[in-house]
Amino acid sequence: MKDIAKEFSDVIAKRHWSEKYQKLTQTALQDSDVQQFIQEHQDQLNADILNNNLDAIYEFVQAKSNRDKFAVGYEPKLIIANHAIQVVYQPNQQLVAQKKQQELERKFMTIDMASDIRQANLDDYAQGAAGRQESYAAALNFILKYSQNQPQFIPGLYLYGKLGVGKTYLLAAIARELVAKDVSVLLMHFPTFAVQMKSAIQDNSVLTKIDQIKAIPILMLDDIGADSLSSWIRDEVLGVILQYRMQEKLPTFFSSNLSMTELQAHLAINQRGDQEDLKAARIMERIHYLSHEVIVSGPNRRFN
Fold first, then answer.
1. By residue range, what is the domain housing residue 19?
2. Cβ proximity of 124 and 179 under 8 Å
3. Which of the listed residues 34, 67, 91 is the one where a domain comes to its end?
4. Could you name the domain of life of the organism this protein comes from (predicted)?
5. 251 and which of 156, 228, 247, 263 could share a cystine (Cβ 3.0–4.6 Å)?
């Protein structure tokens, strides 16, 4: 089997090129990756092709030696296309990991959640304490059905249980699975969001904030029912968001320390202590449509 690299080296020696150019060319050809490329593609190469593509070979060797100057985050690679040698640049492992994290942050949006919430893992949840079988199965069932793009509406989950049993963690783990399937998710701490919405009145951004939230493909409201709500937050913020999502058939998730029955009683009393049963019932009608109730049990994760 002929040695194409040696054959071309002999050609170089016979050419009336400057000594400096010959040296640069020979050095480039002697590069181990270039030698391997020639060896792997010798059935497609000859001395003429190498001669006509010295610039690509030289660029490749220079790019390898000066990665920080050529294309940060990319690795050069030699390929053959249309009987010519070309240099292409492929993202390195660090850049791939960085882009993956950026994509995760872009599609897995959060409002007032812990910084490490995106690391939640459904397998870790399943391997935790007893009492999670029902919630784990419900999570898997939603992910499976939603991923199949079924034409019918797939309700989200209303996760309720005692403090610290892993409701928020499960929401985040579900979100991460959905994001991996190219679905945008917003997970937000609802009591904090309610406070922010009151502040939004001052800069007249209430409707803008509601519009940004209500149309997210998957919305997760964490810790709903933890604080008393004003009639305005309940009806003009939460009610508007849920009404839109019900009309557009957008799955919505909730976590709460209260069952749906308990939440209705909680929502019926506003911050002034007024009893507003009908308005609370309207909110709960939407929550019942958008999600189905699943209990999350087990020991308190925060103290184990």
1. 4-91
2. no
3. 91
4. Bacteria
5. 156
pLDDT for res 254: 98
Per-residue confidence (pLDDT) for residue 303, from 0 to 100: 44
Return the CATH number at 108.
3.40.50.300
Give the chain's domain count: 2
Residues linked to residue 89 through DSSP beta bridges, in sequence order: 76
Residue labelled with tokens 């945008």? 184
Mean pLDDT of the chain: 84
C-alpha span between 247 and 234 (Å, rounded): 18
Q: Are residues 87 and 107 in the same domain?
A: no
Rounded Cα–Cα distance for residues 126 and 132 (Å):
7
Q: What is the pairing mode between strands 84-91 and 74-81?
A: antiparallel
Contact 237, 194 (CB under 8 A): yes
- Report helix, strand or coil for 141: helix
Where does 32-121 have alpha helices with state H? 32-40, 47-52, 54-65, 67-70, 93-107
pTM: 0.69
